[in-house]
Amino acid sequence: DLADEAETALSETLQDLQSRGVLQKGNSLSVEALVDVPEEQVMEDATDEEIFEAVQNMRMCRQDMEINGGDDNQDDHSPEPKPTRKEALHAMATLRRYLEMKRVLLHAKWRSVWHHLAEKHVWRTRKA
Questions:
Q1: Number of domains observed in the structure of the chain
Q2: pLDDT digits (tens, 9 = 90+) for 96-105
Q3: Could you tell me the residue range of the domain that residue 102 belongs to?
Q4: Contact status, residue 51 vs residue 43, Cβ threshold 8 Å
Q5: Beta strands in the chain (DSSP E)
Q6: What is the CA radius of gyration of the chain?
Q7: Dihedrals phi, psi of 65, to nearest 5 degrees
Q8: Inter-residue contact 34 to 25 (CB < 8 Å)
Q9: Neighbouring C-alpha atoms within 13 Å toward the C-beta of 109
Q10: How far apart are CA 47 and CA 54, in angstroms?
Q11: Residue 58 in contact with residue 52, Cβ under 8 Å?
Q12: Sign of the CA dihedral 65, 71, 72, 77?
């Protein structure tokens, strides 16, 4: 059985860790305690009505999250960390390079348009 093999392998691994001193025998858990955590077994004692109410509450909470746009437990207004001086200088240098590139491109376009208009003007004056 795969479950038995996995349990045996896990037990052997835990024993190996204990023998190396990584795990202490006094605070170790059994394989059953690792697999079947007591906190997760709460629903075994619940009645059908309690389970139904829990499912309904979960559905209502999900709908509220969709309507209100998120989980109220999350802090949406947490302050953003301030950039460091190095990050600010790097951003400034990047913006400078970007603006210089845009200036060069705009200048090239302007020269192209100016040249085109000048050619049209020369063409018109030659016709006249």
A1: 1
A2: 999 999 999 9
A3: 86-128
A4: yes
A5: none
A6: 36
A7: -65, -40
A8: no
A9: 6
A10: 11
A11: no
A12: negative
Q: Is residue 122 part of a domain?
A: yes
Domain-located, residue 64: no
Q: What is the DSSP letter of 84?
A: P
What is the reported pTM? Answer: 0.33
**Which tokens sit at 58?**
């979960």
- Choose the weakest-confidence range: 28-32, 72-76, 79-83, 101-105: 72-76
Residue 44 lies in a domain: no
- Kindly state whether residue 81 falls inside one of the protein's structural domains: no
Using CA atoms, how far apart are residues 121 and 126, in angstroms rounded to an integer?
9
HEC profile of 66-124: HHHCCCCCCCCCCCCCCCCHHHHHHHHHHHHHHHHHHHHHHHHHHHHHHHHHHHHHHHH
